[in-house]
Amino acid sequence: MKKYHISRHQRFLAIGLNYEKADAETRGKFSLVPEAAAALLEQARDEGIDGLLVISTCNRTELFGFAAAPQHLIRLLSTHTNGTPAEFDRVGYVFQNQEAIEHLFRVGAGLDSQILGDFEIIGQLKKAFVQAREHGLANAFLERLTNSVIQASKRIKSETGISTGATSVAFASVQYLLARVPDIAHKKIVLYGTGKIGRNTCENLVKHTGHNGITLINRTLERAEAVGGKFNLRVKPVEQLQAEIAASDVLIVATGAPVPTVTASHVPADKPRWILDLTIPVNVAPEVGDLPGVTLVHLDRLSRITDDTLAQRQRYIPQAEAIIDEVRGEFNLWLESRRFAPVIKALKEKLQAMKEEELDHHSKKHQADDAKLAEAVSEGIILKITRQFANHLKEADLDSDDSLEWIRKVFQLETDTP
Q1: Reduced to 3 DSSP states, what percent helix, strand and coil does the chain have, rounded to the nearest 5?
Q2: For the chain, domain boundaries
Q3: Is the backbone peptide bond immediately before 286 cis, with ω within 30 degrees of 0?
Q4: Active-site residue, selected from the candidate residues 24, 44, 49, 58
Q5: Is 58 among the catalytic positions?
Q6: Residues 186, 187, 191, 192: is their CA dihedral positive or negative?
C-alpha cells in the first residue's frame, strides 16, 4: 500500500479518553468547559503548535493536532482540566498520523459513539474547528480533514440506515422510566436543566408517557418558560428547586454544570424516588444514591440500554466503513499532492529560468516572430515536463520519497522540506 505523509509538521496526533475505558468520574475530571478549551488553545499557540482541534462532550475529550510527542498534548489537557497525566496514562489513548486520521473519521461517522449512529459529535467538530480558527490554529490540513470528515458523515447519514430509529440519551432515559417506574404517567416529574439534552428529554417524556404534569426548572427562567410553553408544562424558578424535589417522584438532572447541582441536602429520604443524572461531569452528588429509597442512575448506565433499533443499526457498519475508506482515500490523495507540490513548483521555476537564459542567448539571432514561436514552444515543453513528473509521483507503486530526492538533486532545487 502506498505511503502517505502528513505534512511538514512532525506528527499528527489524536489523544483522548472516552466512555469505553474512562468512567463518568474520570471523564468529568478531563472535561473542558469552553473557557478552559480557549485557554488550552491559547497556550498551544504560544508553545508553537499551529494546528489543534479540541473536542469535549459527555462521552469523550479529545485533542487532534501536531506535536513532537503525545506528551505535549497530554500535558496541555492536564493543565487545563482536573485530570493528571498519570490518570490519562491509565485510561487514555494515543493515535498517530494515519491512525489519528482514521479515528477522527470514525468519531465523526457515529461509529465510535456510545450510542451507535449518534451524529451529535459533528456539531462539536464544527465548533472545534471554528474555535481553532479563532485562535489561529486552523491550518490547511485541519480544514481539509474536518471538511472531509463532515462530508463522510453526511453521506453515511443519507446513504445508510445507521441513524434510523429513536435512540439517544433522552430516549434511553424515558425507556428506563417506562420499564421501571410504576404508573409513570401519574408520577410527579421534575426536570432540572433545559439545555439541549433537557429539551430532548422533555420532548421524549411528553411523547412516550403522555405526561403533561412535568415541572421544569432552569437557572435562566426564560429558557424554561420557552420549553414549558411549547409543551404546556409547569415552570418554576430555581429558588423553588428543593421544594419541587421534595414533592417529586422522579427527578431528571441535565444542568451541565462543572460541579454537582443536586446534593443530599436537596433530597428528603421520605419515599421511593428515581433520580437520573444526564451530565458529565456528574451534577448529582454520589452520596445522593446512598439515601434510603433513592435510585440514582447515571448517564453511562442509560447509554447501555439497547433495543431492536441498535441491533438494526449494526447491519450498516460495513457500508459506513466503505464510505469512510472512499472519502479518506480522497483526502490522502490531496495530502500526498501537497507534499510534492513544492518540488514541482521549484522544478517549473528552474525550467523557466533555463528557458529565459536560452531565449536571451538566441534572441539576437532570430526575428521577432521566431522569438514568439520559441517562447510558445518552450512554454509547452515546460508544461509537459512538469506534468510528466507530477503524474509520475502520483503512481501508487513507487517510493515518492526517492523520486522527490532524485528530482531535487538532478535539477539542484531548493525547497522547504515537507
Answers
A1: 55, 10, 30
A2: 12-164+312-334, 169-306, 341-411
A3: no
A4: 58
A5: yes
A6: positive
State the number of CA atoms in the 13 A half-sphere of 274 facing the CB. 19
What does each C-alpha distance from 415 to 8, 395, 402 come to in angstroms?
A: 12, 22, 15
- Cell 432540572 locates to 192
Residue 77 and residue 80: Cα distance in Å, rounded? 6
- Global confidence as pTM: 0.68
Report yes or no: 160 and 221 within 8 Å, Cβ to Cβ.
Answer: no
- Integer-rounded Cα Rg, in Å, for the chain is 29
CA atoms of 296 and 29, how far apart (whole Å):
20
Q: What are phi and psi of 275, to 5 degrees?
A: -125, 125
The pLDDT value recorded for residue 165 is 58
Q: Helix or strand or coil: residue 57?
A: coil
Which residues in the chain come in under a pLDDT of 50?
1-9, 396, 398, 417-418
DSSP 48-117: T---EEEEE-SSEEEEEEE-SSHHHHHHHHHHTSS--HHHHHHH-EEEETHHHHHHHHHHHTTSSSSSTT
Q: Which fold has domain 169-306?
A: Rossmann fold (3.40.50)
pLDDT at 107: 95
218: closest CA among 188, 250, 196, 203?
196
Q: Quick one: fold of 12-164+312-334?
A: Beta Polymerase; domain 2 (3.30.460)
Q: Are 340 and 400 a contacting pair, CB within 8 Å?
A: yes
